[in-house]
Write a structure and sequence with these properties.
The chain is an all-alpha fold. It has helices at about 5-15, 20-30, 35-45, 50-55, 60, 65-75, 80-135. Helix 1 crosses helix 2 (about 20-30) and helix 1 (about 5-15) runs antiparallel to helix 7 (about 80-135). The termini are far apart. The relative contact order is 0.09.
Length: about 140
Amino acid sequence: MHDIEFLELFLVLVKNGFSIQKTLELLEAQKRSAKYAQRIKNELEKGAGIPYGISSLSPKIRAYESILCSAAESGDISPALELIIKELKEKQERRRLLAVESAYPVFVLLLAQLVTIFLIVYGPEYLGAVVQIDKGQM
């Protein structure tokens, strides 16, 4: 499970009225999300607030710590989680598109190199055959 998936599960449970503590207990009971839930619970046990617990999941989420803190002060963390999930998904999609788009030039360069090697290896032989045919017709 990735941190985005965990945040989505966390958000669904919080939006459906579960307390943060109950949400963490439910997520900790699931094998796939237990690691993330335990990490947040550890931060809460150390005395850190929920924003710091959530931001401890990954460096990508830590960048949104101030948004989480503001949301926690207002009492509703759901909009902040929705924003973070949306932005993380957009970043993930941009990375995927960048990988796909950069594969095309690499493919073209490799193809050009293969054609060049082919022409270097077989070109003189082919040209020699063409010259022989031309001489025979004259």
